[in-house]
Amino acid sequence: MTENEPAPSGHSDTNNNWTKEPTAADKHVYEVFASNVVVLVQLLDDYKTMMSPDVHARLFSSLLTLSRLLGEYEDSWNQEYPTP
Fold first, then answer.
1. 21 neighbors 80 (Cβ within 8 angstroms)
2. Are 73 and 17 in contact (CB under 8 A)?
Protein backbone atom coordinates (compact mmCIF):
# COMPACT_ATOMS: atom_id res chain seq x y z
CA MET A 1 0.00 0.00 0.00
CA THR A 2 1.37 3.42 -0.94
CA GLU A 3 1.15 6.53 1.19
CA ASN A 4 -1.69 7.91 -0.97
CA GLU A 5 -3.89 4.84 -0.61
CA PRO A 6 -6.40 4.84 2.22
CA ALA A 7 -5.94 2.22 4.91
CA PRO A 8 -8.61 -0.47 5.06
CA SER A 9 -11.55 0.52 7.28
CA GLY A 10 -10.58 -2.16 9.78
CA HIS A 11 -7.36 -0.23 10.44
CA SER A 12 -9.32 2.86 11.49
CA ASP A 13 -11.69 0.76 13.59
CA THR A 14 -8.87 -1.12 15.31
CA ASN A 15 -6.97 2.08 16.09
CA ASN A 16 -10.13 4.08 16.89
CA ASN A 17 -9.22 6.76 14.34
CA TRP A 18 -11.94 9.39 13.95
CA THR A 19 -11.54 12.72 12.21
CA LYS A 20 -12.41 15.43 14.70
CA GLU A 21 -11.67 18.38 12.43
CA PRO A 22 -13.38 17.70 9.10
CA THR A 23 -12.06 19.34 5.96
CA ALA A 24 -14.36 21.04 3.49
CA ALA A 25 -14.02 17.95 1.29
CA ASP A 26 -14.97 15.68 4.23
CA LYS A 27 -18.11 17.72 4.81
CA HIS A 28 -19.03 17.83 1.12
CA VAL A 29 -18.61 14.10 0.57
CA TYR A 30 -20.49 13.41 3.81
CA GLU A 31 -23.44 15.54 2.63
CA VAL A 32 -23.57 13.78 -0.76
CA PHE A 33 -23.42 10.33 0.86
CA ALA A 34 -26.01 11.22 3.51
CA SER A 35 -28.52 12.61 1.03
CA ASN A 36 -28.07 9.69 -1.35
CA VAL A 37 -28.49 7.09 1.39
CA VAL A 38 -31.97 8.52 1.87
CA VAL A 39 -32.65 8.20 -1.87
CA LEU A 40 -31.37 4.61 -1.95
CA VAL A 41 -33.42 3.57 1.09
CA GLN A 42 -36.52 5.02 -0.59
CA LEU A 43 -35.68 3.13 -3.79
CA LEU A 44 -35.38 -0.13 -1.88
CA ASP A 45 -38.67 0.56 -0.12
CA ASP A 46 -40.42 1.30 -3.42
CA TYR A 47 -39.21 -1.96 -5.02
CA LYS A 48 -39.21 -4.23 -1.95
CA THR A 49 -42.08 -6.43 -3.10
CA MET A 50 -40.51 -6.89 -6.54
CA MET A 51 -37.00 -7.70 -5.32
CA SER A 52 -35.47 -10.99 -4.33
CA PRO A 53 -35.49 -11.11 -0.52
CA ASP A 54 -31.75 -11.78 -0.22
CA VAL A 55 -30.84 -8.87 -2.53
CA HIS A 56 -33.12 -6.49 -0.66
CA ALA A 57 -31.87 -7.64 2.74
CA ARG A 58 -28.17 -7.33 1.88
CA LEU A 59 -28.50 -3.93 0.24
CA PHE A 60 -30.67 -2.61 3.07
CA SER A 61 -28.24 -3.95 5.67
CA SER A 62 -25.31 -2.27 3.91
CA LEU A 63 -27.17 1.04 3.78
CA LEU A 64 -28.05 0.75 7.46
CA THR A 65 -24.37 0.21 8.33
CA LEU A 66 -23.40 3.21 6.19
CA SER A 67 -26.12 5.33 7.77
CA ARG A 68 -24.88 4.48 11.27
CA LEU A 69 -21.32 5.36 10.29
CA LEU A 70 -22.43 8.70 8.84
CA GLY A 71 -24.39 9.36 12.02
CA GLU A 72 -21.32 8.77 14.16
CA TYR A 73 -19.37 11.33 12.16
CA GLU A 74 -22.26 13.79 12.26
CA ASP A 75 -22.63 13.46 16.03
CA SER A 76 -18.90 13.91 16.57
CA TRP A 77 -18.64 16.90 14.25
CA ASN A 78 -21.72 18.59 15.71
CA GLN A 79 -20.25 18.35 19.21
CA GLU A 80 -16.92 19.77 18.11
CA TYR A 81 -18.30 22.36 15.69
CA PRO A 82 -21.85 23.33 16.69
CA THR A 83 -23.76 25.42 14.20
CA PRO A 84 -24.34 28.98 15.40
1. yes
2. no
